[in-house]
Design brief:
Length: 231
């Protein structure tokens, strides 16, 4: 049996998730990559340089609970187990509350909160069974910093933060490690599509990926880490 470790990365078709995929592949990880856009996922998989059987592309919509369950099942059937789960996928709907729609709030909460909860719930039992596992979550400094225009995004990131810090309490005496990353602005599609996006103070996605690797190499520490060009 191969000793290569396996990481599952949500939102791996571009941005921070794609940078994490390249970083972990360079460190010898096999990968399961999830996003909606299959062509973009395949392009990232090709860039990793992994052999086709070492990189599983999972086309799934995190708004659809059955897609999430199927992706977890497919990944476990393919690799047997997952050592590192990286909850990275996220969306941002910004604007004054009068200008936001209910379906945008619901999508925001589904992708950023419910999907990460479901992925953890899906992979945790096999991690517990093997006595080994690392959960890394890409949140946002907006998880602790309310701002005008953030009623939907901050609701999701505050909720994700509360969920994950509660999970840290649940897992504190176990062999499963959980580490949360709170980035500031990052030079990705997510940030660049914002009309007020400022070009000068952003991290590059590779800097977040380097931090992810630092945490993995340190066995899951620190438990939380803020990273920003402006801090
Ligand atoms: O965003 P972007 P980032 N189902 O837009 C996927 C946080 N963050 O890398 O489905 C499945 O380049 C999407 O793929 P696709 C942020 O909150 C960022 O910047 O093919 N996948 C793509 O791969 C998020 O949690 C900044 O469209 C879905 C990926 O998610 C994380 O960083 C600041 C999906 C998004 O790539 C990564 O964001 C901050 C769905 N329904 C926190 N919807 C920043 N960039 O400034 C989206 O504080 N994806």
């Amino acid at each position: 049996m191969s000793s290569q470790k396996v990481a599952f990365i949500s939102g791996a078709s571009r941005g921070i998730g794609a940078a994490i995929a390249l970083k972990l592949a360079a460190h010898g990880y096999k990968l399961a990559l999830l996003a909606r856009n299959g062509d973009d996922l395949q392009a990232v998989a090709a860039q990793t340089g992994l052999a086709p059987d070492e990189c599983l592309c999972l086309v799934a919509d995190l708004q659809v609970p059955t897609d999430i369950e199927q992706a977890v099942a497919q990944c476990l059937a393919y690799f047997g187990s997952v050592d590192v789960l990286i909850n990275n996928a996220g969306i941002g709907h910004f604007g004054q509350i009068q200008d936001l729609r209910l379906d945008q709030l619901q999508e925001q909460l589904q992708v950023n909160v419910v999907a990460s909860w479901m992925l953890i719930k899906g992979f945790l039992p096999q991690m517990v069974q093997l006595g080994n596992g690392l959960l890394i979550n890409i949140l946002s400094d907006a998880a602790r910093r309310p701002f005008a225009g953030g009623t939907a995004y901050c609701a999701s990131k505050f909720a994700q933060d509360g969920m994950l810090r509660s999970l840290q309490e649940e897992l504190k005496d176990s062999s499963i490690k959980i580490s949360n990353i709170y980035p500031g602005l990052v030079n990705t599609y997510f940030n660049n599509k914002m009309p007020q996006s400022n070009q000068s103070n952003k991290l590059e996605p590779e800097e977040v990926a380097a931090l992810v690797w630092e945490i993995i190499a340190a066995g899951g520490l620190p438990a939380e880490r803020f990273i920003s060009r402006t801090h």
